[in-house]
Automatic annotation (TrEMBL):
Signal peptide positions on this chain: none
PANTHER family reported for this sequence: C6 TRANSCRIPTION FACTOR, ZN(II)2CYS6 TRANSCRIPTION FACTOR (EUROFUNG)-RELATED
A single GO molecular function term of this UniProt record: DNA-binding transcription factor activity, RNA polymerase II-specific
GO biological process per UniProt: DNA-templated transcription
Domain Xylanolytic transcriptional activator regulatory: 22-222
Keyword Metal-binding among UniProt keywords: yes
Name of the featured protein: Xylanolytic transcriptional activator regulatory domain-containing protein
Keyword Transmembrane helix assigned: no
Length: 465
């Protein structure tokens, strides 16, 4: 009966949002979309996100509007394109205005997590169109205290950076910083989607510059967090309430961003003499995974996992898969911490079905790797080959098509390893360089590939290693 009411309510909200473009309908749709993404990151969730993003744009929620049009009561509302200009009234109070701002950022957050998980999709809300100032802390919002937070200029400088117009860090909260780290993660996602010629010295030099710039952005963001952030582990045992849980989800977002960026240099699927695994990048990934493991342990011991939602689940999923990618690259046994991540995901699966799905996929892959029938490196290469095959295109409309039958184990491999399928090589470059690229393959899978820190091609000195 509960499932029936849940499904019926979901359908009612969706139909209402289809026919009514309003702030109230959008709020309800956000809840439905979050619930769907907590069930599976699949087509139903993406369709809801499309509606969510489009309605947010129609309501002009992604910008700080100063003037709102209104039709005189004696006139009929237009049934043409101009109707979107009067779709929303001006906010009647600061708290209503801030509520809309937080709603816009929540749509942005859902779009980011769902899109980043796919590795190939484009964002539905472009960063250049997201012109909202950051939301304030929940404490100030709940007390209806009008404050300024942080906003950026509209014109980038010669280096592509956008300066701050307003900066009041004392008024920021965990949600504010979460939005900031997602803006950096968005840049990482777009950076890694761009095809790269890993045999070109000039392209690799430009790639390293962008990589270092994004790395510096992550470090700068971390340094800008308030002092209380360093105490969240202790707070967990004294106050595992939703307020503290927001800081845990913030930390998980940082881990996701670090792993997403640095795994590209630490564990490349395809290599060249200019692009090999980086010791610095590898250590950054492993340190981030360790920190998330520590935080998850604290939350688990404090019985606070029920306060954490899909963003935290996704970070656990990313961290666990990183351990499998590390095992595949170094040809070593998978880190025992993988069992902890599987256990935690299974536990959170009581509240969010997607976590249980992740746990089952990980358990199957780990079991197959330990049975010895196929090693993790071969699994990764299988996933890479299948994704490349599925992405192949025809040159003409009359070329024949074909079907390739895949097994559940092959789909598991894709689920685990495709997130780390980098660099992206264009079809033209792939054909031109066929046979020249140094690819990971099973022929030399018995030789560990631990990078030498003394000759790291990124030119970094590993921190704390």
């Amino acid at each position: 009966m509960r499932a029936h009411y849940h499904e019926t309510s979901r359908q009612i909200v969706q139909m209402y949002a289809m026919e009514h473009v309003s702030v109230e309908a959008l709020r309800a749709l956000v809840i439905v979309c979050l619930d769907e993404l907590g069930t599976s990151n699949g087509p139903r969730g993406w369709n809801l996100l499309t509606l969510l993003a489009q309605n947010a744009r129609q309501l002009s929620l992604c910008e700080e509007s100063s003037v709102f049009l209104s039709v005189e009561h004696s006139d009929d509302s237009p049934m043409t394109g101009s109707i979107r200009r009067i779709a929303i009234d001006r906010p009647q109070s600061w708290i209503e205005d801030e509520g809309r701002r937080r709603l816009a950022w929540m749509v942005y957050l859902l779009d980011r997590y769902a899109t980043i998980a796919t590795t190939t999709f484009d964002f539905m809300l472009d960063d250049t169109k997201m012109k909202r100032v950051l939301p304030c802390s929940y404490d100030l919002f709940s007390r209806d205290i009008p404050v300024e937070t942080r906003s950026w200029g509209s014109s980038p400088d010669q280096h592509g950076a956008v300066g701050l117009v307003v900066n009041k860090p004392d008024n920021l909260g965990s949600f504010s910083y979460h939005c900031e780290i997602l803006r950096i993660l968005s840049k990482v996602h777009d950076f890694l989607k761009t095809p790269l010629d890993i045999t070109s010295s000039s392209e690799m030099a430009a790639w390293r510059n962008t990589y270092r710039s994004l790395d510096a952005s992550l470090d700068s963001w971390l340094r800008g967090l308030p002092g209380d952030y360093s105490k969240i582990s202790a707070l967990c045992h004294s106050d595992p309430a939703s307020r503290v849980a927001n800081w845990f989800m913030l930390h998980s977002a940082y881990v996701t961003a670090v792993v997403r960026l640095h795994s590209s240099a630490a564990y490349p699927t395809v290599r060249s003499h200019l692009f090999v695994p980086s010791h610095y990048a590898m250590q950054r990934c492993l340190s981030a995974v360790q920190s998330l493991s520590d935080i998850a342990q604290d939350v688990y011991e404090a019985s606070g996992l029920d306060h954490l939602g899909p963003p935290f689940i996704f970070s656990l999923w990313v961290a666990a898969r990183l351990l499998l990618v590390h095992a595949a690259t170094t040809c070593c046994p998978v880190d025992p911490r993988i069992e902890f991540f599987i256990e935690i995901l299974g536990h959170v699966g009581q509240y969010w079905e997607v976590a249980d799905n992740y746990a089952k996929v990980l358990a199957r892959v780990v079991q197959r790797g330990r049975q010895g029938d196929i090693n993790f490196n071969a699994m990764r290469q299988s996933a890479h080959g299948l994704v490349t095959l599925a992405g192949s295109t025809r040159l003409t409309g009359i070329e024949p098509t074909s079907t390739h039958i895949t097994s559940l184990s092959e789909l598991d491999n894709i689920d685990v390893f495709d997130f780390f399928n980098y660099p992206k090589i264009s079809d033209t470059v792939r054909r031109a360089l066929s046979g020249q690229l140094q690819s990971q393959n099973t022929a030399d899978s018995e030789t560990p590939r631990l990078p030498d820190p003394e000759s790291d091609w990124l030119g970094f000195t590993p921190q704390g290693s």
